[in-house]
Specification:
By secondary structure, the chain is of the alpha+beta class. It folds into 2 domains: 112 residues, Phosphorylase Kinase, domain 1, CATH 3.30.200; 129 residues, Orthogonal Bundle (Transferase(Phosphotransferase), domain 1). The chain is built from 8 helices and 11 strands. The termini are far apart. It comes from Aequorivita iocasae. This is Lipopolysaccharide kinase.
């Protein structure tokens, strides 16, 4: 089996211990999330709290693609996180990654610093009375605008992928996670509005975000709101229709 282990120079001193932790991942029972596709566990090495994300084992065809034609999700996560930090965009610091190959990619792990966050974007959706909700939304809009100005198209810009930390009273930091689907490209107005569609924004949320984005970008509120609403409603309608079809098939 061929192995590729990469660690950031900042963490070179824990390379051996981290490698051991990755090879003994199955023995670690400190789960952060345990999904059908990916598993995240927490470890502490020399007082440093880290998250290890193990990606789902790809099928036979995909495993060959990941070895010879396309970077693994772990490698992309590490590289994209490094690019974001270079752009002064927050994400849990990329510590390293491990890939195991045997006739294709068999296992891949991504390691990042653990973030003690206060809440994630989902809280703003599920709780319309969330404290300072409108202010958080406005600052989140500024954060997303920063992404777009830096030509970052975060394809998984969805509610669970932004962690929020209250840095000081009424001042918030936003951290992107789940980074393996991202493009670095010129962000036209159309692409910018399209990028909001996965956030499951309510009509009230669209109004607040559109107003703030229009001011930042120099577009009118009317055209910003119209295009953002169009993509949000289209996405939500498609997802809801898919759920209905699934329920019908099961029944």
């Amino acid at each position: 089996m061929k192995e590729n282990f990469v660690i950031h120079p900042k963490y070179a001193q824990i390379a051996t211990k981290l490698s051991d932790a990755l090879h003994n991942f199955s023995k670690n029972q400190d789960y952060v999330t345990k999904g059908e596709r990916n598993v995240i566990k927490k470890i502490k090495i020399d007082g440093i709290s880290l998250n290890i994300k193990k990606f789902k084992t790809p099928n036979r065809f995909q495993s060959v693609v990941y070895q010879f034609l396309r970077k693994s999700k772990a490698k992309r996560s590490f590289e994209y996180a490094s690019k974001l930090i270079a752009l002064d965009i927050k994400t849990p610091f990329p510590v390293g990654y491990l890939e195991n190959f045997s006739g294709g990619l068999r296992e891949s792990f991504y390691v990042s610093e653990h973030i003690d966050y206060d809440f994630d974007f989902r809280e703003l959706i599920h709780n319309p009375r969330f404290k300072k909700r409108n202010e958080v939304l406005r600052q989140f809009t500024e954060f997303t605008f920063q992404l777009h100005e830096n030509n970052v198209n975060f394809l998984d810009h969805s509610p669970g992928n932004t962690l929020i930390v209250e840095r000081q009273k009424d001042k918030y930091d936003f951290y992107l996670i789940d980074l393996n689907r991202m493009r670095f490209e010129n962000m036209t107005f159309e692409k910018r509005m399209h990028n909001f569609r996965r956030l499951w924004l309510s009509k009230t949320m669209v109004k607040i975000i559109a107003q703030q984005y229009a001011e930042l970008y120099g577009k009118t509120y009317v055209e910003t709101h119209a295009l953002m609403s169009k993509y949000s409603r289209k996405f939500q309608k498609a997802k809801n229709s898919k759920k209905i079809r699934k329920r019908r098939r099961k029944s």
